[in-house]
Amino acid sequence: MNLKDKKFTRTSHVALTSHSNQIFKDTPKIVWGESDPEKRGPIIATISEKENRNAIGSHSGSYTVYRALSIASGDFPKDHKPELDNTQGTYAVKPSPSWFDAEKIVTIDPFGADINLHFPKLLKEGYNIKPSIAVTQAHLHIPEVQAAVKAGKLKVDGKVVKEDGSVKCTKVALEPVWNLPGMAKRLNIDEGELRKILFQETGGMFPELVTRPDLKVLLPPIGSTTAYIFGNPDDLQNPEIELTCRVHDECNGSDVFGSDICTCRPYLTWGIEDAARTAQNGGVGLIVYFRKEGRALGEVTKFLVYNARKRQEGGDSAKTYFHRTECVAGVQDARFQEFMPDTLNYLGVKKIHNLHSMSNMKYDAIVAAGIEVVNRLSIPDELIPADAQVEMEAKKAAGYFTEGNIKDEEELKKVQGRDLDE
Ligand SMILES: [Zn+2]
């Protein structure tokens, strides 16, 4: 069969899953919060057998769209079933009471890892179930952390920090699996209203949001989350063991490319250094990395704001920092930290001894999720890049957590960033 024919067979017939005649008796039920995985039921968002699907959307987060392109081009077999031999995690996250509380975790499937252990019967019967969580190991080679080793701030122990200055960790990738009733409850809005707005604001991407109220779970096409654990992952669940944690929202320009307009990469690398140090001292470290670029407004909006900040009358100043974002984007921040603690609850975190963050939204969300926070740490002054002073001082003046001084209106005007053409 040539490529053209393949394309024809794929697109010749479209079954709309929004019709009520698409409700099948073979579809496994989902009872969110149920502790027995078989009774809770697997999340089936694979496309191969539509009569087994019990969720809206598809696996792989934002990559679901690339998979569709790959299938369209003829490269990817549409009915592929994953061969999962040897894919089991290098560590199995231990169940904690949060897993069995329908309201504590609403954006992750706690049974999403090691599905062969949770759903052996259904897998044997041929159900195409796919994991939404995977766990592996890594050695991180990070120049700032290696510099800390050279400076004697972090020691080589051969376990957490290796001879070459790399840091060993366990990492957990988590795809979004949204239980809509639980999310609506946490946002304090009606489930129907949430479903309608999600449908409308994505240009009508998932009609089932409005036509299939029986389907309660959505796998949205958004970025995933990765947790990096330093030390013994079991220790995350023991509140007696010191935990150093940073919950970090993606900033590609700084995190990866080292742009100096913000403090994101210094915050991240300092967090990794301190997480590793805590692990060496008998504690455990945790960095959770969320794909919420540019306060979840995206890079295009973010770059527009940078330009507007630097071109405004009087130049880029701490005084107008938040105002400029709101003018361009409509809000100062679209990250909704309300759901961030789900990852912490999935990992069984009960107490954070050292929280690396100056964000009150993050702190408030963590505490509201029932997790105790002992110390809050803002970034040391010497790690703040010159052009990022504007962001830092604006945040402090807006009430973000700091151990340092807070500038008044006049002083804020004097905190100026670099000009656009410099
Ligand atoms: Zn940044």
Describe this structure in a few short sentences.
This protein has 422 residues and is of the alpha/beta class. Helices cover 33% and strands 13% of the residues.
Overall description:
The chain is α/β, with parallel strands linked by helices and 422 residues long. It folds into two domains: 3-127 and 177-219, no CATH class; 135-175 and 222-414, 3-Layer(aba) Sandwich (Rossmann fold), CATH 3.40.50.10990. Helices cover 33% and strands 13% of the residues. It is built from 18 helices and ten strands. The protein has helices at residues 3-11, 37-40, 63-72, 115-118, 120-124, 143-150, 180-187, 191-201, 208-211, 252-255, 264-280, 293-296, 299-311, 321-329, 341-347, 360-368, 389-397, 409-414, and strands at residues 56-57, 133-140, 167-174, 178-179, 217-219, 225-230, 243-249, 284-290, 351-356, 372-377. The strands form two sheets. The chain has a seven-stranded mixed β-sheet, with helices on both faces. Helix 16 (360-368) links the parallel strand 9 (351-356) and strand 10 (372-377). Helix 7 packs across helix 8 (191-201) and helix 13 (299-311) packs across helix 14. It is globular, with a radius of gyration of 23 Å. The model is unreliable at 1-10 (pLDDT under 50). The structure holds zinc ion. Zinc ion binds at residues 251, 254, 262, 264.
